[in-house]
Amino acid sequence: MTLRERLRQKISAAFYHHGLLCASYPVPIILFTSASILTCCYPLLRLPLPGTGPVEFTTAVRGYASPSHNPLGDPVERPDWYRGPPVAYIQQVLVKAAVSPWGSSLLPVDAFRPPLGQVFTLLEEIRNHVHSDSSGVQSLEHLCLQVTDLLPGLRRMQTVLPEHGCLLVSPGNYWQNQQELFDSDPDLLKTVQKHEPKGLHTSATLRDLLFGVPGKHTGVSHYSKKRVVTYTITIALSTYDAGFLGSLRARLKQLHPSANCSLGEEHMVHVHFKEEIGIAELIPLVTTYIILFAYIYFSTRKIDMVKSKWGLALAAVVTVLSSLLMSVGLCTLFGLTPTLNGGEIFPYLVVVIGLENVLVLTKSVVSTPVDLEVKLRIAQGLSNESWSIMKNMATELCIILIGYFTLVPAIQEFCLFAVVGLVSDFFLQMFFFTTVLSIDIRRMELADLNRRLPAEAGLPPPKPGPLRPREAPPPPRPSPHTITLQTPAFRNLRLPKRLRVVYFLARTRLAQRIIMVGTVIWIGILVYTDPAGLRTYLAAQVSEQSHLGDPGGGGGQPPHLGGMAPVFPGGDPAKALSVLPAREATPLPENQSQRHLAPGRVQEQPRGPPAATQVPWGAEDEEGWRRLSFRHWPSLFSYYNITLAKRYISILPVIPVTLHLGPQEAPETPRHPQDARLPPDPIPKFSSPDLQAADLTLYKVAALGLAAGVLLVLLLFCLYRVLCPRNYGQNGVSHGRRRRGDLPCDDYGYSPPVSEISPLLLRGHSMDIECLASDGMLLASCCLAGQIRVWDAQTGDCLTVIPNHKLRRSSSSGCWEQRGASWDGAGGACDPESLGCEGRDPCVGGDSASEDEGGGFPFRRHAAPLRPPLFTDQPDLTPLIDTNFDSRLPPSSVHAAPPRGAAFDYGGLVERAYTEHEPPSPAAYPSPSYSSSPPTAGFANCRRSPVEAPDRGFACGPPPAAEWEGSVWAMELRGNLIAAGRSSGKLQLWDAVEGSLRCSNEEGASGITALAFLNNRIVAARLDGSLDFFTVELNKPPGLLQYRGAPGRGSMPPSPCYSSDDLISCQLTRSVLCAHQKPITVLRAAAGRVVTGSQDHTVRVYRLDDSCCLFTLQGHSGAITAIYIDETMVLASGGQDGAICLWDVLTGSRVSHVYGHRGDVTSLVCTNTCVISSGLDDLICIWDRSTGIKLYSIQQEVGCGDSLGVISDSLLVTGGQGCVSFWDLNFGDLLQTVYLGQTSDGQGVRQLLVLDNAAIVCDFGSELSLVYVPSVLEKLD
Amino acid sequence: MSRTLTAMADSTPGEYGSEPGPRPAPGPYISAVTNRTTNLVIRGAMLFSVGVFLALVLNLLQVQRNVTLFPPDVISSIFSSAWWVPPCCGTASALIGLLYPCIDNRLGEPHRFKREWSSVMRCVAVFVGINHASAKVDFANNVQLSLTLAALSVGLWWSFDRSRSGFSLGVVIALLATLATQLLVYNGVFQYTSPDFLYIRSWLPCIFFAGVITMGNIGRQLALYEHKVALEKTHQD
After folding, report:
1. Tens-digit pLDDT profile for residues A1191-1210
2. How many Å is the Cα radius of gyration of chain A?
3. Which 3 state secondary structure label does DSSP give A812?
4. SS3 A919
5. Which residues of A touch B22 (CB under 8 A)?
6. Does residue B195 sit at the A interface (CB-CB below 8 Å)?
7. Which of the residues A402, A575, A745, A992 has an alpha carbon 20 to 30 A from that of B61?
8. What percent of chain B is helix, strand and coil (3-state, nearest 5)?
9. What is the ipTM of this complex?
10. Of the candidates A774, A762, A785, which has an alpha carbon nearest to the alpha carbon of residue A875?
């Protein structure tokens, strides 16, 4: 025992114990795990939330000094980005200019042209300002931020943005800072609008940049009610000189004093910008995330065989995610601050940690034997995989360790995170996921237990042996599957994925809800971001609330009226026209604060004559830049290829400048000749800004409409693709059979243990099995030799053998005697040895008898060489050989035997065997005695491949005697009675237990092709198309007739038990002579109805009680080959035309009609929700019963059997070449293939019966195979 | 341990094996296409598009390193390199992706290691990660960068391929591609920022190698479907 093995054992044992622990105490362990996850994630709370919004930090202006690069550990709490000088100091000069008093001679354009014109003088003033102190002379040129070229893409902005000089922007930039250009500009607004981007604009526009205040607040429009023009002159300074700025401020204030201005000058605000993720960075990131999701999808798709697939997938993802969070949390706890971009490395971390272990664990646990206890299963599964898990983990740790020694800081950090993540992932797998898995498995077991509880409760264990008393046969076992069959309402057929998606959408109305929510959110965003909208309104409300308590504020008045009053001089006609309702309804904050500042004036203003307009200054002007987009500064700087990401700027307190322009001054400012023309149209909505706004809205609406239209079309297309039934079944899973020895195995070298179902082979028949009948407890089979055997369906014991006495007797008494004469006439030349030799291989004899008729004893020379396996598929004729030669001594008429006759003529016997063995093809019968067996090609029980037909040059013997009974063509079993219909037209009733013939009816002459035995009635369909109804009667008082109580079995009516003492008679009650024009091919009886299908393309429905024909169903265009009817009165029929019809038995109307097969429909079964059909094209189709839509189809191998059986609503059994296959009906998955014999290429399974105890019986050559369905299949949900 | 793993890999039953048994029917997507050439074209087209997409994205990653945060035009930066680079990458990846399964066939040693889409996705993610690291992580010097990338590439091969043919093919193609790039550089069609090792960027072969392994992985996985189709067909015949 090497060290490795010992280690392996240790690990395995440890995992085993761990698994036991986890499965035993699931709840405490999950609680513990959750607690530890939360604890480890707790340090994450201290990390800043990710976001791209700027962060502010305010310091006092007084005593400001640029922060140093290395913080000196000062106690003052300052953010860690606040070190080093800022990119720029922003000094804004906020100019508010108004023309007052407003004269009636003034044009609307006068409201902003003169104030804007003042910017040039102000600019001049600022540029030329010089501050001289002890340190020297400081001018703006020295202090300001020098910028170089604009970015190459911004050539069109070259005219308006400064280049190669101070970064100083103002509205004057529109006119290149030249007064002349301004004066000669015919339309100022047009110049301003010219540079606006068309369409939607999200961030800072040029107008915002130059004016420095949001566009709505500038007041530069024809219809500004306030006639106050606001703009800023923005100066970016590279160095902070308190002296220069102070003197500039003083100078400007002195020149243009602002009377009511109380703006604070104490604080400067430092704004730090995060790194913004541009689209260029976003694309790789999104790609990695898409790959990550694909990885997760493909991984979790492999989880299988559990109760809740989604739950486990979720648990797996939660495991990985929380292990990552834990790793980050732990790293922060130990002082490792993550410097990497979490969003970027996250996908790689997930990929490195991986979901493999989780999947391997699941697979391993699921594949443990299901009959074990849950905790043992978990423990076994864990310990099975322990070695590979540990090995993988060690490998990954090694790789990461190697990565750690690359000594690259970023990679080291990644590796550190990955190591901690791996360890915590291992921890979570072991505790969290294992426990979740155990809970899941337990749930599955519980569900399973619930399902089979009634079965176990009502299970009488004593097996009915062969010696059971006939008088009191044991009550039938309540079948465990009746429960399953009756409660499938909630176990609906699992639809194909696309349909499920559609149904889910339809059920939850998800699409509508998403659209509604999206619309609401969109409207909300629109309302909120609209500058004139909710936000300002809310702000106004807040400020109003705060001022409500002010007694002098004129609280009773509507606030905006009071506020408006000083701004609007009365009697202005233009004002009345230009007022927009929305604007009026929106209280403007300026007015609020203005009222607050000058409460006393409010009352008298409206009455007084238009006095000088007060330019309002409010608190919001103090930090007017806040109203700008937060991308304002980054975009301004980005024009010059200066990034603000991870850097900060310092915004200095604004310098307020108030300009009062008298009405006499205003015209002094040279008007442009075209100004008088303006505005061309006084109606506001045609005016330029409103037009612009309308334009924008139009754009928005158009874009949204277009997008919505495209989306709608795409959606409809997808819906069409999803719903289009033409491709149904194409996408369905189709499976071939798994080859023997080709076990499922994944790529981790892991294969689940094989739980082969070993079929129970019932041997005894010497020839191929022809008929199979069962009533759940007993199983009757009839082979080609005519031997009927009765088996116990539970144990497989052979109870009774009913040999074909009649056949033998008739043989010996009939033709055999004649042959015996010739035999004897040969003078005993034939020694018994040769016969014995031939007896061992009779078919050889058959052939040689036909070929070598002339030879005396030709058998010997053929016997040896022509042994099987050449003739393995020939019928075994052993039982036909009667070696009891003494019993048939020739009584009479010895033929003078010619040499030819000396050969024993096997012809008659062998031919009979062959006729039973192979399909009686119409032309192949030379003997008139077989006239009663006309074409029966469609017979379900007479299918044989014609390949086996040998040369039929038989020495034609005389016709068999009339009392030859013929072979059994149909058999039914009810209670103790076996009803056997023979080819001779006889109907015989046998006691199944005793093996005695109870009754025989020989009224019909035509062979019975199909039998139905229901209650006490037997229906026999004959070859000539007639239908006979028999009644089984007991010649005893009916009080003695015992009923086998079968309360639990609703599907089967109580069948009377006939004791051996009773005299049973079987009387023909009615014979429908011409039920069909052609031979009846199928006969089914259920629910008091008898349904026949015939080659004349029709299906007829008879009532069982009075044998009255209820309906003749026409709809097929070929012979009927399959019919299904059950107690729920569902009737399905399939024909040679490949069509399947569903009928309503009550009304006789056709419910649906589908074509599913190329060739005959060979078999039909219905469950509560679906119809399953198989055809000659080796296709199994599953149809929705209510809609007739094909759900999916399974392509089987060529030449596989066509027998079908449904065990429960989700389990389908099909017979194949030497095997039976189990399918999951919900998904169409092949669950298991059970091989019946040693050689997989044996005979096909032609008949398949599903017994009530979840066993299936099928014929397999001359053997019967009893397959108990393993419980694992039942566990599938 | 390596032997165990290899044995483990070998013991997995042949998804791709020489025994043409009845295989499960083809996947739902390619199953409709049974024509072999059509299948080949479809696979080539898929590989081509994957190659183009990866080339664009990875190029963007490389470009970011030298570009400002606020590129004037994002779209132009996507196509910042020459227009013919993405199609070339696409063609190369299509060739490689078709070549790998072909060589597997010829050598008669089918690739059996981790044949599933989740593993392929993992491989692609690691490949993008290698590119990401080479673009974003600041290494002390170029030797360190190259060594790290080489180790990562070999690790990629070990994790997702482990076939000798894959390794040798990857090395050969990486060398050829490096040579081709070098020729282009000499002719002035293309330029590096700075050659550091024998006139080339030393990380280039590593990236090429990882790319070849990745595309080969995808190609093999795609070929799995075709193989199933072929098997199905022979079976039906």
Report:
1. 777 777 766 666 788 777 77
2. 49
3. helix
4. coil
5. 736-737, 739, 1197
6. no
7. A402
8. 70, 0, 30
9. 0.76
10. A785
